[in-house]
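Slack export, channel: ligand-projects

TW: morning all. Re-posting the request from yesterday since it got buried. We need the structure predicted with the small molecule present, not the apo form. The ligand is zinc ion; the SMILES is in the block with the sequence. No rush, but it would help planning for next week.
GE: picking it up
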Amino acid sequence: TEEEEEACDSAEDSEPLALANYVILANVRYASFSVDFLRSLFSRTLGLSPGEKVLDELTLDGVARYILSGKCKNIICMVGAGISTSAGIPDFRSPGTGLYANLQKYNLPYPEAIFQIDYFKIHPEPFFALARELYPGQFKPTVCHYFMRMLKDKGLLTRSFSQNIDTLERVAGLEGEDLIEAHGTFHTSHCVSFLCRKEYSMDWMKNKIFSEDIPKCDSCGSLVKPDIVFFGENLPDRFFTSMKMDFPRCDLLIIMGTSLQVQPFASLSEFGMGLIGFGGGMDFDSDKAYRDVAHLSTCDDGCMALAELLGWKEELEQMVKREHALIDSRDVKKKDEANQNSKSTGAEAGKTDKTA
Ligand SMILES: [Zn+2]
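GE: finished. pasting the full token output, ligand included:
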């Protein structure tokens, strides 16, 4: 619609969303969390008219009491890379361990090229080599992921907006309408040809990635790419429509593991988040602070602390234990199958090694 276009095109012209009651619980993993950045990002709209004070105290306890009061029915989560680092997924920007720092071996003209759609269409190999290394499914969701699942199970989660492409939200049990993968997902793949756009499953793509075949469309021969958002591609439409729909009725916004700053696949400040302007200046500690709560800890610790205040701690611990055991038992099964396969092809593999 025209309205949506406007929201995407022009920040300054878009109407501020009326958000009377909501709280920002900024729970971030890194000390480098930029409060100033968030302040400026959120200042476009809500700062105009202060909303009603809903927390009796700007602390995690205050948030817990608000949730338990029954007045907080629509919770939105916004999550980023920080919620997955404890699962072992490398953060894109950490020096040394960060993804970009480990890209030299691919001889890229510049690191971001690996996620540039035009570069990919000519040189898809580095991306698929990297995908093999980072392939989702080798990692387990964290306490923080399961905390969101608990919000869902208790009927409190309106939606989770994730900047991550690791699919751990889905593994933890968020699905369909629960989730907006702002930077796309490995869950599905499509032929890159605009005329074709044939869809491929996660299993199909996984087989290609691990067989070191460059995935090609079986209808038209073009490249097939996981549906993650590359530089030069648009964010999914659902991202914009859901934000416009969800934020006006949001009672509590929980931000975890992200400073909302530049991210690997698309920058939300460039492509949407800042433009839609869902917030108002965040204020955690001034004299005028009435709404926003910052809890600085790891995401897992923060979620566990909130769960404890809500009386959900044991339930959450059990969920994590149960779900991880389930994933482990599947992994063991897969490994057994893989061992069986490698035994039967072992002799052949040995031969290949000698000739190579
Ligand atoms: Zn095709």
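GE: first-pass observations. Confidence is low (pLDDT under 50) at residues 1-49, 261-281, 346-356. The pocket of zinc ion is lined by residues 191, 193, 196, 198, 217, 219-220, 222 (CB under 6 Å).
TW: perfect, thank you
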